[in-house]
Amino acid sequence: MILKVSTTSSIVAFEAAQKEASKHQIVKCLRIEMSGVLLWVSCGPKENAISLVGLGGKIGRSQRRLGLWNRISFASFSPAVADPLRSSEERVYDVVLKQAALVKRQNKDRKRTLNLDKSIEGDLTNGDLLSAAYDRCGEVCAEYAKTFYLGTQLMTQERRKAIWAIYVWCRRTDELVDGPNASHITPKALDRWEQRLNDVFDGRPYDMYDAALSDTVSKYPVDVQPFKDMIEGMRLDLRKSRYNNFDELYLYCYYVAGTVGLMSVPVMGIAPESKASTESVYNAALALGIANQLTNILRDVGEDARRGRVYLPQDELALAGLSDDDIFHGKVTDKWRNFMKGQIQRARMFFDEAEKGVSELNSASRWPVWASLLLYRQILDAIEANDYNNFTKRAYVGKVKKLLSLPTAYGRALLGPQKLTKMVTRGIRSGVTVNLSTNLPFRLC
Ligand SMILES: CC(C)=CCC/C(C)=C/CC/C(C)=C/CC/C(C)=C/COP(=O)(O)OP(=O)(O)O
């Protein structure tokens, strides 16, 4: 489907695209902005099947003359084509599709075998050692992510051990740039960490935490790509302290948090009775990571500024009449409040997107995910309650609120997969853009 509209009527276009998408079982809906023109492009269940199911306007003569129509149709649907027109969301969506395809393939026949006898430090094939390694991962998870750890207790033993192993790897990766030795970390060290990751996936772990991960990736259809992308996020953090626009920030959020969602789904598992497409569940998991990271960024504006970092999109700040200086001075003004309202709204839209997928997970995995989602989402309420002072006041969710969320999470977890056979948004990638005239974020598709 190709819908061309002007930027001012994006909402109309979105509604039209959704309506058409639901009729034609469109699996993917992309937003492309080019030369000030907004185009809607969707493709059918087969990646290469592009069908015209609606038209929000006519392709302008200048676009046709430039041959842009052809370029768009071609470039957007061929991931192999490296094209600057592809937004971060489109590129990340390719990873989502790859992960989903891997699960489908590996559900059919899974042949990866663990070659632990090649392990680098001692004999990690020993069952007792492996079991001790998983226990250590559990202890680390319990120490740093208490609520989540509690939630994992509801999962089967196998699944919870695997989640712990993944969690510990993410934590260690994060510690490289955020931990006590962060000032010594170099891109070379990250390269070595990536090499070590390859070894883990090849069944050659260095230490006991690695051994637990090696075992996990041999048992579940976990792909190395999100792990590598997380390391890429750390590289980005080393060299970049400003983000020009939301597209750049989105990519960063994918690297450091969306990847966690993609790593977790194969282990958490999709409910056997789920009718949702695998892509849509991965998409929801990705959205949860993005939502969490955006929330983290909004909560930590002051703290990050004191480290010389501004993660907020520079173009959106400028549009709101704000600059880095305003952030460094940390004064809550009406301009700041309005700006923050838009940012919070956008983060909430990613949470909304994530919520659609939680009920599609295996029953035992739903509760911890709901619990962490509800808790993290409430940080946004806390920022509002602090009158948007995220410079000197840390937004946090109090113990009572936290406790009250647990039964809510449990109640929601009891609800299984969506009964609706055709969710309008099923499989449709979510994206958010900021309407330049109002600075309010709109979900575009
Ligand atoms: C929704 C579906 C279908 C599946 C769920 C898939 C999962 C588990 C997604 C979760 C992704 C996740 C937990 C990303 C990490 C995001 C994040 C910003 C973590 C913050 O970590 P810390 O920096 O330790 O946070 P605090 O500073 O708040 O302690």
UniProtKB/TrEMBL annotation:
Which residue ranges does UniProt annotate as crossing the membrane?
Answer: 249-271
Q: What is its EC number?
A: 2.5.1.32
- Entry's InterPro entries? Isoprenoid_synthase_dom_sf, Squ/phyt_synthse, Squalene/phytoene_synthase_CS, Trans_IPPS_bact-type, Trans_IPPS_HH
Per the record's keyword annotation, is rRNA processing included, yes or no?
no
> What reaction does this enzyme carry out catalytically?
2 (2E,6E,10E)-geranylgeranyl diphosphate = 15-cis-phytoene + 2 diphosphate
Keyword Membrane (UniProt): yes
What is the enzyme's class at the highest EC level? transferase
Key words, A-Z: Carotenoid biosynthesis, Isoprene biosynthesis, Membrane, Transferase, Transmembrane, Transmembrane helix
Instruction: Give the family from UniProt.
Output: Belongs to the phytoene/squalene synthase family.
Q: What is this protein called?
A: 15-cis-phytoene synthase
